[in-house]
Design a protein that fits this description.
With 134 residues, the chain is α+β, with helices and mostly antiparallel strands. The chain has three helices and nine strands, in the order βαβββαβαββββ. The longest helix is centred in the N-terminal third of the chain and has 11 residues. The protein starts with 9 loop residues before the first strand and ends with a strand.
Length: 134
Amino acid sequence: MSQPSQTLAAITYLVADYDEAIDWFTRALGFTLISDQDLGESKRWVEIGAGDGGVTLLLAKAKGVQQVAAIGACAGDRVGFFLHTTEFETKRAQMEREGVRFEEDTRYEPYGKVAVFRDLYGNRWDLLEPKPAG
């Protein structure tokens, strides 16, 4: 019996402010705003993505002490997000012009070219140009 088709579509990403996060992701990382719907009572359905049709981030405004404390700590200070590119140097330079803070020089690993950066809330990301298959 075959398994039903499934896709990981979105990941919840806690933010302090919807508009601040939309601005940063679209400007600094070049993400696309996919959806921004008012749900009432200060809630919005906001999805952003890298523009390739992959997994999106569902921006969720943190409420309450526990959620607010989790902003910027989604992976316990480990790298939690991986932004792939086919033009590493160009992408890194564009991000640095927009004020993105990289933690290291570019590294060359068996799996590709990589450098860790932090987003506007302090979450750690890899900018990664994977080695070609083969």
